Fold this protein.
Amino acid sequence: MPLAAHYIGWAFNNLAKETKKDPLQSYEPLSRTEETRLVRALYRFQLYCNLFGVSHYRFRCQWMLEFDHVNILRIYLGNYEPWEVEEIACIYAFTKATFNQVFDDIRWDVHQDNPRFEEHRPPTPQGAFNLDSGCGARLHPTDQDSKQKRRDPLPFQGDNEELPPLAWTLIWQGTYSNLFGWYIKDELRSWGYIMWDAARLERTGAKEVLHRQWKACWEDVDPRNRLRYAN
């Protein structure tokens, strides 16, 4: 799968910039669980684009009339566990960075607002994964929101595609969180924090990067404490 290979190279190179280590330390073959996370994220991102993306068949204003962020959460993203949504968000970050690089490379030939090139942009709505997932908890709470409100235990139980990876359990301190999107910055997604097994996090120094970047974003604040829930 060429796209998956391209993503792996992009993520591992970005991780090496953070750890200051040789990127070859990250390049051990992916485990079956890591492959599953990556491949399903690619397919789910493609489906997301097909369902909600902007293209020459559907303009941005038409999309905004059809789907707002709450509807996208309810119709599509709410079907996945929050760490699985973050897998998709990592692919979006990769896609966005790749397209931005292409447009940067030809900036002398085209202007980024030139409508001639709209159909060649990534077919995703603007701010696609800057969603405030907390708005769903406020307006239409789900079972996942209830587990978050109770802080149900969710410790790391080993690497399995059905369970949260170590990175997720670390940032949420072993309890359930239904926050994604706006609450997690692209600095973490740039190296695919949610994709990798515990052994890779330990071996590459990514665990320390995760801790540093999360603390820089939220310090000692738990963003779940800022939510107000519907009665």
